Amino acid sequence: MENETLYERIGGDEALRQLTNTFYDLVFNHELISRLFKTDKDLIKEKQRLFLTQFLGGPQLYSEVYGHPMMRARHMPHTITEDDAIAWLQCMSEAVGQLPISRELKDELFDRFPRTAFFMVNS
């Protein structure tokens, strides 16, 4: 167990599917940040699942399909403010909170997101 990745410890693909579905249900209806997610909603969810898989130590699925994540560059066409990052993190916190895992694991998982969310801020 000591060598298990965070991806494995939270429940792998099943957990990430639950997380992305719950997260995007919140995001797509959020009055501040829903404007950032207007393209194919199923594709958005799938890209996030693939990215989170490798971000959390699982298989490099995103890179296999789309190449290097280059997340900041991919987000540059969108105006992203600190308030957007905070709203995104609030949605993610709520989604993580609904996973059937321990509080410690929820905290460890959520702690992976703030740095990345604020790295996307470009305005």
Structural description of this entry:
The protein is mostly helical. The protein has one domain: Globin-like (Orthogonal Bundle), CATH 1.10.490. It has helices spanning 6-10, 12-27, 41-55, 61-66, 71-75, 82-97, 103-110, 114-119. Helix 2 crosses helix 3, helix 2 packs across helix 6 and helix 6 (82-97) runs antiparallel to helix 7. The longest helix has 16 residues, at 12-27. The mean pLDDT is 93.
Please write out the topology.
Blueprint: H1 6-10, H2 12-27, H3 41-55, H4 61-66, H5 71-75, H6 82-97, H7 103-110, H8 114-119
Helix pairs in contact: 2-3, 2-6, 6-7
Mean pLDDT: 93
Helix content estimate: 55-70%
CATH superfamily: Globins
Overall morphology? globular
How many beta strands in the DSSP annotation? Answer: 0
The helix-strand sequence is: HHHHHHHH
Instruction: Give the count of structural domains.
Output: 1
At CATH level 3, the topology is Globin-like
| CATH class assignment | Mainly Alpha
- CATH architectural arrangement: Orthogonal Bundle
Point out poorly predicted stretches.
none
